[in-house]
């Protein structure tokens, strides 16, 4: 289904610059990759820089769900630097071959609470999560419920390839109950709980979502200790 969107043999860097106005370091790191294969939609590159760029050069802890062919972990190491703790998880045992190269790899399922807890404990906590795993709606929902409470505040939780929210084979569909964008709507209502009396849609995230960002196929949650909103009037009367 996504084959019709594959970019041709043109200049990848030029396409990203021209289409999205982005010319940051991550662009060069991506297009000049000579290591294991990494496959990304072009519009993700500036989004990664926007939401993860502040962590560059720091000793933050990053967890990527979905190792695949190992290329993305090398991209992250080059982008984040040597101080970052980078872990990747995948259900495919073959991904163990990438352990200890650009980061640490652990084999297990993204919807296994005990496994995810053990990985986060080994990491010493987690500051940013990128869910590039199975993209099945039930897995996306379950992983968010498990990991978001363990995420540091402030922290960033990004879910990508959410075009699958519209695909029945992934538990999605425009009107499907499991469509993650319906979940995003519930998260938006929970974020505004100050102004209504409805019960929370997603207790696992209640009180900690400071921002919700929806892009083409990407959802980002800002985790922070959300203060009760107040307002003031200033200036001459």
CATH superfamily: Vaccinia Virus protein VP39
What general outline do the C-alpha atoms trace?
globular
CATH topology: Rossmann fold
Biggest sheet statistics: 7 strands, mixed
Tally of structural domains: 1
Widest β-sheet, arrangement of strands: 3-2-1-4-5-7-6
- SS-based structural class? alpha/beta
Mean pLDDT, to the nearest integer, reads 96
Helix fraction by DSSP (H/I, runs of at least 4)? 25-40%
The span between the termini is 61 Å
Uncertain runs: none
Tell me the total number of β-strands.
Answer: 7
Q: How does CATH name the architecture?
A: 3-Layer(aba) Sandwich
Percent in strands:
15-25%
| N to C succession of SSEs | HHHEHEEHEHEHEE
CATH class: Alpha Beta
Number of helices: 7
**Radius of gyration, Cα only, in angstroms?**
19 Å
Summary tags:
7 strands; alpha/beta; Rossmann fold; seven-stranded mixed β-sheet; 29% helix; 237 residues; globular
Summarize the structure.
The chain has helices at residues 12-20, 25-31, 44-52, 71-80, 113-123, 137-147, 180-191; strands at 61-65, 85-90, 104-107, 126-131, 151-159, 209-215, 218-223. It is of the alpha/beta class and 237 residues long. The chain has one domain (48-223): Rossmann fold (3-Layer(aba) Sandwich), CATH 3.40.50.
Model description:
- This protein starts with 11 loop residues before the first helix and ends in a 14-residue tail after the last strand.
- The longest helix is centred in the last third of the chain and has 12 residues, at 180-191.
- The protein has a single domain, classed as Rossmann fold.
- It is built from seven helices and seven strands; from the N terminus they run H-H-H-E-H-E-E-H-E-H-E-H-E-E.
- Strands 3-2-1-4-5-7-6 form a seven-stranded mixed sheet, with helices on both faces.
- With 237 residues, it is of the alpha/beta class.
């Amino acid at each position: 289904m996504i084959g019709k969107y594959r970019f041709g043999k043109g200049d990848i860097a030029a396409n990203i610059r021209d289409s999205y106005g982005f010319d940051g370091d991550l662009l060069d790191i991506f297009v000049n990759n000579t290591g294991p294969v990494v496959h990304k939609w072009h519009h993700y590159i500036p989004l990664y820089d926007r939401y993860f760029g502040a962590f560059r050069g720091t000793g933050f802890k990053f967890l990527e769900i979905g190792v695949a062919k190992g290329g993305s972990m090398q991209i992250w190491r080059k982008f984040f630097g040597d101080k970052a703790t980078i872990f990747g998880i995948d259900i495919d045992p073959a991904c163990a071959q990438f352990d200890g190269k650009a980061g640490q790899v652990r084999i297990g399922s993204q919807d296994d609470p005990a496994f995810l807890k053990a990985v986060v404990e080994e990491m010493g906590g987690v500051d940013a999560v990128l869910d590039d795993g199975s993209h099945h709606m039930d897995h996306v929902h379950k992983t968010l419920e498990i990991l978001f409470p363990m995420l540091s505040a402030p922290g960033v939780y990004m879910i990508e390839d959410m075009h699958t929210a519209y695909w029945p084979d992934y538990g999605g569909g425009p009107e499907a109950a499991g469509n993650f964008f319906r979940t995003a709507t519930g998260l938006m209502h929970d974020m505004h709980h100050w102004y209504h009396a409805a019960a929370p849609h997603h207790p696992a995230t209640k009180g900690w979502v400071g921002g919700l960002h929806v892009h083409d196929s990407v959802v980002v949650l800002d985790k922070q200790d959300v203060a009760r909103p107040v307002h003031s009037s200033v200036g001459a009367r």
